[in-house]
Design a protein that fits this description.
Blueprint (H helix, E strand, L loop, with lengths): L1 E23 L9 E11 L4 E5 L5 E7 L3 E14 L12 H7 L2 H6 L14 H14 L3 H15 L1 E2 L10 H7 L1 E2 L1 H14 L4 E8 L14 E8 L3 E6 L4 E2 L4 E7 L2 H4 L2 E6 L3 E13 L5
Parallel strand pairs: 6-7
Antiparallel strand pairs: 1-4, 1-5, 1-13, 1-14, 2-5, 3-4, 8-9, 8-12, 9-10, 10-11
């Protein structure tokens, strides 16, 4: 699949602001599953940006707008190619792989994706209540993660605007309502509680004519888990699907705090944010 993604991130201010320092993570990733063919950005006010890669390997750009301005507009346009054959529907899981998953060496290697964070902390008794019956139903950790994915989808009500970027997994669990960020934080907490390394993924979702899919209006979020010999496997609890070539990855981290699409500080008054995302398929998969 080949896609063109355009995102408009527009801040307007009640009064002119100055000394604005900003950082964004919006360039799609490059790896064996996905290639970012091109990436362009337009910044208003017209200022240069400076590139670096963060601890997790994400492409980060920083820019400064020192003069007074009454709006900040960032338009990014990406073309991305995703290999549909890089994804699998199922993974066989041998006793040796299960032993490797729970080995001390594996835990140490992926310790950062097993730790609790402010966003992904749930009481131990809650994790046990949710995961224990699911764990007993399945034969291997891959099947367990699929059950967690489905459980969150079935249990939660997807309601845009019901939470904020500061909502934690515990707060979302209490209210049983949220958006993709909340679904993702809860799933991270549950997988990690069972010793399965899991990371937060931000990106875009192409729904095409599948109007049942949720999360295409802005940047989307989902989970990747690490299993021995299988690499990172993506699960989207917002839509109860395995991640395939309709998910376009931008950045990864422990939780939302590691992958914030655009953040910054400025000197001035109240701001208003408007984000618009469009994802177009430039080439469809062709099967024989």
């Amino acid at each position: 699949m080949k896609y063109r993604v355009t995102q408009h991130t527009h801040y307007t201010y009640e009064l002119p602001v100055s000394q604005s320092i900003n950082q964004f993570r919006l360039k799609p990733m490059d790896d064996v599953k996905q290639e970012c063919i091109s990436f362009k950005k337009e910044i208003t006010p017209n200022v240069p940006s400076y590139v670096h890669y963060d601890y997790w390997g994400n492409h980060v750009e920083t820019f400064y707008a020192w003069e007074d301005h009454d709006e900040l507009l960032l338009v990014t346009t990406s073309e991305v190619m995703i290999d549909p054959y890089a994804f699998k529907e199922a993974y066989s899981f041998s006793p040796q792989m299960k032993d490797a998953l729970f080995s001390q060496g594996f835990k140490e290697q992926y310790a950062e994706f097993l730790m609790k964070t402010d966003y992904t902390t749930l009481p131990d008794e809650v994790c046990k209540e949710i995961t224990e019956p699911l764990w007993k139903q399945c034969n291997d950790p891959f099947e367990f993660v699929k059950l967690v994915n489905k459980h969150i989808y079935d249990t939660f009500t997807y309601t845009p605007g019901s939470t904020t970027v500061n909502t934690t997994a515990f707060e979302a669990w209490e209210n049983k309502v949220g958006v993709c960020q909340d679904y993702t934080h809860l799933m991270l907490a549950l997988c990690r509680s069972r010793g399965i390394p899991a990371r937060y993924v931000s990106g875009y979702l192409y729904i095409g004519e599948n109007s049942a899919m949720r999360g295409d209006a802005a940047t989307h979020a989902w989970v990747e888990v690490k299993l021995p010999t299988a690499g990172w496997i993506g699960f989207d609890p917002t839509n109860n699907v395995l991640v395939k070539d309709q998910h376009i990855r931008i950045a990864v981290g422990r939780d939302y705090a590691d992958i914030v699409p655009l953040k910054g500080v400025y000197h001035g008054g109240v701001q208003k944010l408007d984000v618009k995302v469009s994802v177009y398929a430039l080439e469809e998969n062709v099967t024989a």
